[in-house]
Amino acid sequence: MTETVSGSAARRGKGSRKGLKIERIFTTPGVHPYDELRWERRDVVMTNWRDGSVNFEQRGVEFPDFWSLNAVNIVTSKYFRGAVGTPQREWSLKQLVDRVVRGYVETALAEGYFASDQDAEIFDHELKYALVHQMFSFNSPVWFNVGTKSPQQVSACFILSVDDTMESILDWYKEEGVIFKGGSGAGLNLSRIRSSKELLSSGGTASGPVSFMRGADASAGTIKSGGATRRAAKMVVLDVDHPDVGEFIETKAREEDKIRALRDAGFDMDLGGKDIGSVQYQNANNSVRVSDEFMRAVEADGDFALRARMTGDVVETVKAKDLFRLMAKAAWECADPGIQYDDTINDWHTNPETGRITASNPCSEYMSLDNSSCNLASINLLKFLTDAGTFDVTRFVKLTELIITAMDVSITFADFPTEKIAETTRDYRQLGIGYANLGALLMATGHAYDSEGGRSLAAAITSLMTGVAYRRSAEIAGVVGPYAGYARNAEGHKRVMRKHAAANEGIRTLDSMDKAIHTAASKQWQECLKAGEKHGYRNAQASLLAPTGTIGLMMDCDTTGIEPDLALMKFKKLVGGGSMQIVNNTVPRALEKLGYQQEQIEAIVEYIAEHGHVVDAPGLRPEHYEVFDCAMGERAISPMGHVRMMAAVQPFLSGAISKTVNMPEKATIEDIEKVYFEGWRLGLKALAIYRDNCKVGQPLSVAGKKEEVKEAPVETRPVRRRLPKQRPATVTRFSVAGAEGYMTASSYPDDGVGEVFLKLGKQGSTLAGVMDAFSMAISISLQYGVPLETWVEKFTNMRFEPAGMTDDPDIRMATSVMDYIFRRLALDHLPYEERAGLGILTAGERAMQANGEDPAALHAEDEVDHESLAQTAEITRPAPASPAPAAEAHSSMEVIESRQGRTADAPLCLTCGTKMRPAGSCYVCEGCGSTSGCS
Q: How far from 413 is each of 103, 406, 425, CA to CA, in Å?
């Protein structure tokens, strides 16, 4: 193996090899990085908001004071090792980081990576500083396994292979199962398996790859049901010239038709429903591997040949455009299959003499040889944005060097699930450095995500990262030798390095920030080519862009991977208990960068807090709207905006990009064809789409959509309608963050509330007088016909003190007294459909939603008194089983839903019940860190 030979040579001091010199950049000599921080003890108690049950509890854990509650919860529950409640259980971030870093430093010393023990100590301190300051993170298997008695698995991504024999197919099932059991994911290409249109040697007809997918899918589904870490994640790829490609393309679309039929027949087919398990092929992402020949045939409306697997003979000739449209139609119906561009992938392949790249991991970012693996790490880009608004190139370069060194060391001590994977990985040493928070960085620097400036900055950063990574790889090769497969692939590897360097020269910079980064990148590529020519390279691959799901939350990143901001509003848990909806911290930073004054910034942020978008925000210039465009919401980024960003950074990545291009429900099959075709034309390696509401298990509407009735304007003056002297009234005593008050709401005998009186503060005080005047103004407006719904829309989410916990089980948190009052009025006096459209539900209605039931069923009868369904009278309100973290939302996705009045197409977390959010081509739970994939 490579590390054994070269490591031995280094230890003996043969030749001119010298260990690496490590330079301090983050730390201070004589001061341990932990000693520069303020540490505090916290209690971690994680509950399932649906039933109040405690999922995890560990008290007295130790973290830096600037770590968010969410990051603390996730690291404590996911990564601390040892049985909870025992002395062996880790309780401090220091212990976790020490455990992991110790394995890297000891191995690097033993293998001759460092020039001296002092360099080893600097490496130790620098790595610990970067980790505790959330500057980067290794992928989850490192935190799970390194330094424990478990096998030292460090890779999250695996590629398998399967041949056209029953023994190989059964090995495939077994190898996938082993990988899934460990919480990782795997992908493979089934194109070597004979099609159902070919004969076996016995004279019978082959089953075809799609039939064997059933067994693998059932295995993955079983392991998913019993898994404790996350679901089984897998990718299945088939070449476009395989005779069964049409059946493969339609496989999941047909199953979606089955889901609709069973649902209409009364079966429970929602996500997690008891009958959804009968549907096949749901545990894998499917992708078609297309060639340039095929895409050119699509472009020219030509014919395309499907070929036998064993002989290469033409089995069938089809119209390329028809096959391409079949792919787009299936994706329109169910989001599968995705597409992988085979010739582009292999044109950037550093090991062509060893074999072609035929498949990817489940999230499509790792693409390399069969039976290989990749360990990942991601940099938090926002950590390098200085207070002066510049990008700290020097610190970024040094951190990238540090990470690549550590990642390469990990392959030396790592264990692998199969011997074949171990051999390939040790011989080629594939790494996957990437980043998170690109979307937040772009917004904070005043760049629109879908803009030339945004793409230029992203390209420059990506080029700098990969240039430094390969330059460092060459330097490591000079110390401990190149990877074992380098000699036979030297020309191919150096050719790809020259392609990266040439692509770097093509970056068109637009401002001082991206110009400075690009200048540094050009220097790094020059040094990379020079060092590679002299020493070769230690790693066949160096970079990719992963979903950064759980580790993104660990680093407190606002955005994952290459993604833009999800929305301008986000959900935040509070250390003292409870939660709140806040405007992303990146927004005021962006406004300051764009030149707005503090008063303007406050007004714009307040507007966003109320409306969830920037359109018509006071004082915000329309030309700046695009800076605040997000993945979802009022000004969602167009599908091609996502594709163009991917194309901007792809030439600077060894691997590919984990990303799903979201498309609106109204998107057509032709729109998907355009996205797939442009992905090929722009040089992407892989592309997947998701059209809103294409899955049966993910309904679009929370409540029935209101029909807009347009009437001709009539010039009328409102007439005040006074209440009778005797009228029904409801008195509510309330408490918001300890501030107590009373609300009396009087109603017309036949038609809704018409008068509100509020008592808050001592009689004769300024506050009491203001509340009296406010009450009269609201009451008079109601009597003049202003709908209560209008007031609810205006005053909910208004923020000022006092704010916090209430004593109302329907409204556990309020952002102000006004927020509470008008939510309570809505629950007491508005019909369900209007409340649902505003995202205001009772505790019982929310519980029904969580259990997959439709709260509208409670309100189907017109004679049902909606006021009796709201828990209004204090004496009849049952105490909740456990305080819910928020009244309307439990994750950022649910915040977005409450703003948009519709359910987003994202699954619920199986662990804690919150709505997950997209992370690349996977999903991640903000509540507990669980992911739906292999990130």
A: 8, 11, 12
The span from the CA of 6 to the CA of 483, in Å, is 9
- How many Cα neighbours within 13 Å face the side chain of 593? 23
Q: Where a domain ends, among 293, 312, 347?
A: 347
Comparing C-alpha atoms, which of 205, 200, 236, 240 is closest to residue 219?
236
Active site residue 504: no
Q: What tens digit of pLDDT does each residue of 243-295 get?
A: 999 999 999 888 888 877 877 777 776 656 666 777 777 778 999 999 999 99
The catalytic residue among 157, 363, 694, 928 is 363
State which residues form the domain around 148. Answer: 2-154+359-553
Decide if 909 contacts 916 (C-beta within 8 A).
Answer: yes
- 493, 455: one domain: yes
Query: From the candidates 70, 189, 286, 361, which is the catalytic residue?
Result: 361
- The domain that holds 210 is classified in CATH as 3.20.70.20
CA distance 153 to 375: 9
592 is a catalytic site residue: no
- Is residue 363 part of the annotated active site? The answer reads yes
235 and 138 belong to one structural domain: no
Read off the amino acid at residue 570.
Answer: K
Beta strand residue intervals within 214-323, DSSP E: 233-239, 285-290, 303-307, 314-319
The residue annotated as part of the active site, out of 365, 475, 673, 897, is 365
Per-residue model confidence as pLDDT tens digits over 546-603 = 999 889 999 999 999 999 998 898 877 665 556 667 788 899 999 999 999 999 999 9
Same domain, 374 and 520: yes
Residues 306 and 390 in one domain: no
Q: 424 and 535, same structural domain?
A: yes
Q: Which amino acid is at 487?
A: A
Count of structural domains, the chain: 3
Go through the chain and tell me how many residues it has. Answer: 935
Which tokens belong to 261?
A: 């039929």
Cα dihedral across residues 531, 537, 538, 541: positive or negative = positive
The neighbour count for residue 272, using CB atoms within 10 Å, is 13
